[in-house]
Amino acid sequence: MDVRNTTVFITGASSGIGQACAEVFGAAGARLILVARRLERLEHLAAHLETTYGVSSHCLALDVRDRPQVDHVLKTLDPEWSTIDILINNAGLSRGLEPFPEASLEDWEEMIDTNIKGLLYVTRALLPGMLKEQRGHIINVGSIAGLQVYPRGHVYCATKAAVQALTTGLKLDLLGTPLRVTGIEPGLVETEFSQVRFHGDGDRAAQVYENLTPLTAQDVAETILFCASRPAHVNINQIVLMPVDQASTTLVHRHPQAAKKEA
Ligand code: NDP
Ligand code: 8X3
C-alpha cells in the first residue's frame, strides 16, 4: 500500500520513536496529525516536515490520559483531518526502576494511565471513524518488556503486556472488517525514554546504552512504515526487534571500552 496522502495520527510525536515516525511517514508523503503535550516541539517538527518534504501536519496538544480532553479533541477534529488511515499508538513511558516494595505509586499510576488507558481512549475515539470508512490500520508500540518481565520492571512490563493483549483483542474483534492491527515490540532504543524513566537523571540514562549499539528511533519508525505499506490484504500481527547487542530484556553485550581494549 502506498502511504502517500494517507492521514497518519501519531501519539508521542514530540520525541523519540514518534518523532521518527513523523519524519519517515512525512518523507513517504503522508499527511500527519502530530500529538503530544509539548506543543512547541510539535510545531517545530511540523515546520521542518513542511520545509523538507512539503507535507502538511496538524498539531494537537493532548494529554492521552485525559479522557474528556481526548474525546472532545478527537470528536471535533477539523473535517479536513478527521479521516484517519493509520493510528500509531506510541505515546508511553516508564517511570522508576525500584524493587516492587519500594516503587512509587505515582509512577505506577502514570504508567498505567498513559500506556494502557491513554492508548484505549485514543483508539476508542478513532475506531468509529475507521469502521465508517471501512479502512484503517492501528499500530501499537509495545515493547519486549511486554514479552519478558525483568527485575524492577514490574508495572512497566505489565503495561506493555497489556498493550500486547489489547493488540490481539483488537485484531480478534475486527475480524470481518478491512481494518489492520499490528504490535511493534522493540528492545533498547536510545531516545528520551531512560531520561524520563530516571526522572531527568541524564548520567543514569546514558549508562543504559553505554558500550552497546542500541536501536535508533528511525530503525523502529522504518519497521512501522514497512508494516503500514504492505498490500491491503496483509496484516503483520507482531514484530519483535532488538539490537544485535541485546538478546533478552536482561541480557546485553557491552563492548569493552576502547581504553580497556588498548590496555
Ligand atoms: P520518548 O520519551 O522519547 O518519547 C515518548 C513520547 O510519548 C513523547 O513524545 C511524549 O510527549 C509522549 N507522551 C508521554 N506521555 C504522554 C501523555 N500523557 N500524553 C501524550 N503524549 C505523551 O520515548 P520513546 O520514543 O522511546 O517511547 C515511545 C514508545 O516506545 C513508548 O510507548 C515506549 O514505552 C516504547 N518503547 C521504547 C523503547 C526504548 O527503549 N526507548 C523500547 C520499547 C518500547 P510529551 O512529553 O510531549 O507529551
Ligand atoms: C523499553 C525497553 O527493556 O528498557 O520498553 O524495558 S526496556
UniProtKB/TrEMBL annotation:
Pfam families noted in UniProt: adh_short
Keywords associated with the record: Oxidoreductase
CDD domains, per database record: SDR_c5
The UniProt record lists the keyword Ribosomal protein: no
SUPFAM superfamilies per UniProt: NAD(P)-binding Rossmann-fold domains
Family: Belongs to the short-chain dehydrogenases/reductases (SDR) family.
Protein name in UniProt: SDR family oxidoreductase
